[in-house]
Write a structure and sequence with these properties.
Elements (H helix, E strand, L loop, with lengths): L4 H12 L16 E3 L2 E3 L7 E4 L12 E6 L8 E10 L13 E6 L2 E6 L2 E5 L4 E10 L4 E6 L9 E11 L7 E10 L6
Antiparallel strand pairs: 1-2, 3-4, 4-10, 5-9, 5-11, 6-7, 6-10, 8-9, 11-12
C-alpha cells in the first residue's frame, strides 16, 4: 500500500505526540510557493489601476500612479513590477526612471514610503520597478511613475503589468492592463 507524503507526516506527528510535523504541509503566510526551484504567487495580484491628475497632451506636470493590491493569501511578497506600453499613438514620450517612487496605500491617501529602483527601456517601452524590501502580502502599494511630459498625441494608452514574487527564480504573473487616457488641449 502506497502512502501519501501528507499521511506519513501526519502519522509521524501523531507518533511524536505533537502536531508540529503537520505544519510542514500547510502553506505559511508570507512564504512563496516554490515548485521545481521556481517561485510563484499562491494568489497573484489581478488588477492594476492607473491614475493621473494631469491628463492633457504634452503636460510636463504628468505623474502616473499605478496601484496594485496584494491579497493576504498571496503566498509571497512582491519583488518587482514590469510595466510595458502596448498601445497608444505616441511611442516616444520618455520616463524619468530615477524619479520613480512608491508608497503603501492609494493616491492622495499616501502611507509609508517603499524603497524602489526603476529602469526604463525606450526601445521596449518597458519600465521595471524593483522593491529592494519586498512588499508583504495584504498591502496595497502605489508606484508613482514620472514621464518627462505626457504623450503629445491624445489617445487611450495601454500598459501591460506583470508582478514578480520574491524568491529564487521568480515567475511573473500577469496582473492586467492599465489604462491611461490623454486628452487634447482645448483651444480657448
Amino acid at each position: 500500500m502506497t502512502r501519501s507524503p501528507w499521511a506519513l507526516t501526519l502519522v509521524g506527528a501523531l507518533l511524536s505526540g505533537t502536531l508540529a510535523g503537520a505544519a510542514l504541509t500547510t502553506p505559511i503566510p508570507g512564504r512563496a510557493l516554490e515548485l521545481r526551484g521556481s517561485t510563484y504567487f499562491v494568489k497573484a495580484p489581478w488588477k492594476a489601476e492607473l491614475i493621473t491628475y494631469y491628463d492633457l497632451a504634452g503636460d510636463p506636470s504628468a505623474e502616473y500612479f499605478l496601484t496594485i493590491s496584494l491579497d493576504a493569501q498571496a503566498g509571497a511578497p512582491l519583488a518587482r513590477l514590469s510595466i510595458q506600453q502596448s498601445r497608444g499613438a505616441d511611442w516616444q514620450f520618455p520616463f524619468a526612471a530615477e524619479r520613480t517612487r512608491a508608497f503603501l496605500g492609494r493616491p492622495r491617501r499616501e502611507g509609508a514610503a517603499v524603497p524602489v529602483q526603476a529602469t526604463f527601456s525606450q526601445a521596449e517601452r518597458l519600465i521595471t520597478v524593483d522593491f529592494p524590501e519586498p512588499v508583504m502580502p495584504g498591502n496595497t502599494v502605489t508606484v508613482m511613475l514620472k514621464p518627462w511630459y505626457n504623450p503629445v498625441q491624445a489617445d487611450t494608452y495601454l500598459f501591460q503589468v506583470s508582478a514578480w514574487p520574491a524568491g529564487p527564480q521568480p515567475v511573473a504573473s500577469p496582473v492586467g492592463t492599465a489604462t491611461l487616457r490623454i486628452y487634447d488641449r482645448m483651444p480657448w
